[in-house]
Design brief:
This is Phospho-N-acetylmuramoyl-pentapeptide-transferase. It is a multi-pass membrane protein. The chain is built from 13 helices and two strands, in the order H-H-H-H-E-E-H-H-H-H-H-H-H-H-H. The protein has one domain. The radius of gyration is 20 Å and the shape is globular. By secondary structure, it is mainly alpha-helical. Strands 1-2 form a two-stranded antiparallel ribbon. Strand 1 and strand 2 form a beta hairpin.
């Protein structure tokens, strides 16, 4: 929205700053951060009053989670509100990729909100049926995949790019949209599974978002793509503003979600943020790099898949409890220890993911 101020510029005044994506990304970060600090406590108070008993706690979960009973959920509203506000204020709203990512984020937030509302109102952990959530998720992701393909350069349309092997492209043809569905839905649900301890999911999300934002900015500039020898995708640089909003809004949320959490992110936040990461990866043609940058989420999701498949086959469990962060809780690790060590892993994976830009 503020980009229109460049029309008032003669090229040598303060309005010219709004032409620069990095300047507007900084503005988006600060806007989202201030939004989080301003509206965090009022939102938590409203959620406490309206939810009564708060998010229901799984009876078969780790014993230490009983103390979390009564904590309100839907805290993701704070993050999504901060991200939406900062993006609408600072990004170019004529950018197809920004609009696509906003569409995915808002749509998945709506699914998550419905799920959280069902859990709180019925006071059980089931919420909206998994089949309904998946069907809606598939539909939204399919629209996003077709959207991205429409605005990708002709030479990259329906192509899968590979990290390191930068001259290699795989033409997926009509399978591109189904592939995008797997990436976006998989990312959304992987982040959702990771959101099980106070502060565990939000920091890796911020790390991944910041990393993908840098990648988006790089692949949206011809000088950077020529130097790094990566594929040029015009318009993706604006996504940096969106990711800056995630980092700012995430920090504002973490202020209240740090152990012991005053509010849970809920599916409202985890599905929306996971879906956003997947959508950014699709837009920037870095779907495979997302598996590295978001490797922590991949491991969390795989731990559940392995646990379920192995139990159905043998009647035994690989992990004491899945997702894997609960396994370490059962082994006696303190919650803050698990959270911080997982943050460190997420940061290491993000650095490795960034390195793929240069490695050939």
């Amino acid at each position: 929205m503020l980009y229109w101020l460049t029309e008032l510029s003669d090229g040598g005044d303060v309005f010219n700053l709004f032409r620069y994506i990095t300047f507007r990304a900084g503005g988006a970060f600060l806007t989202a951060l201030i939004f989080g600090f301003l509206f965090g406590l009022p939102l938590i108070n409203v959620l406490r009053k309206t939810q009564g008993k708060g998010q229901p706690i799984r009876s078969d979960g780790p014993e230490g989670h009983a103390v979390k009973a009564g904590t309100p959920t839907m805290g993701g509203l704070l993050i999504i509100g901060a991200v939406m506000t900062s993006t609408l204020l600072w990004a170019r709203l004529d950018n197809a990729f920004v609009l696509m990512v906003l569409f995915v984020t808002a749509s998945y937030a709506a699914i998550g909100f419905a799920d959280d509302y069902a859990k709180v109102s019925k006071q059980n952990t089931k919420g909206v049926s998994g089949r309904t959530r998946l069907l809606l998720g598939f539909l939204i992701a399919g629209i996003a995949g077709a959207w991205a393909a429409l605005y990708h350069p002709a030479e990259l349309t329906n192509q899968l790019a590979f990290p390191v092997f930068k001259d290699t492209l795989l033409n997926l043809g009509f399978l591109f949209v189904p592939f995008c569905i797997i990436v976006i839905v998989g990312s959304a649900n992987a982040v959702n599974l990771t959101d099980g301890l106070d502060g565990l999911a939000i920091m890796p999300v911020m790390i991944a978002a910041g990393t993908l934002g840098i990648i988006a900015y790089a692949v949206g500039r011809t000088d950077f793509t020529e130097y790094l020898d990566v594929h040029y995708v015009p318009g993706t640089g604006e996504i940096l503003i969106f990711t800056a909003g995630i980092v700012g809004g995430g920090l504002g949320f973490l202020w209240y979600n740090a152990p012991p959490a005053a509010v849970f992110m809920g599916d409202t936040g985890s599905l929306a943020l996971g879906g956003a990461l997947g959508a950014i990866a699709v837009a920037t043609k870095h779907e495979l790099v997302l598996a590295i940058v978001g490797g922590l989420f991949v491991v969390e999701a795989l731990s559940v898949i392995i646990q379920v498949l192995y139990f159905k086959r043998t009647g035994k469990r690989v992990f004491l409890m899945a997702p894997i962060h609960h396994h370490y809780e059962k082994k006696g690790w303190a919650e803050p220890t698990i959270v911080i060590r997982f943050w460190i892993i997420a940061l290491i994976l993000a650095i490795i993911g960034l390195a793929t830009l240069k490695v050939r």
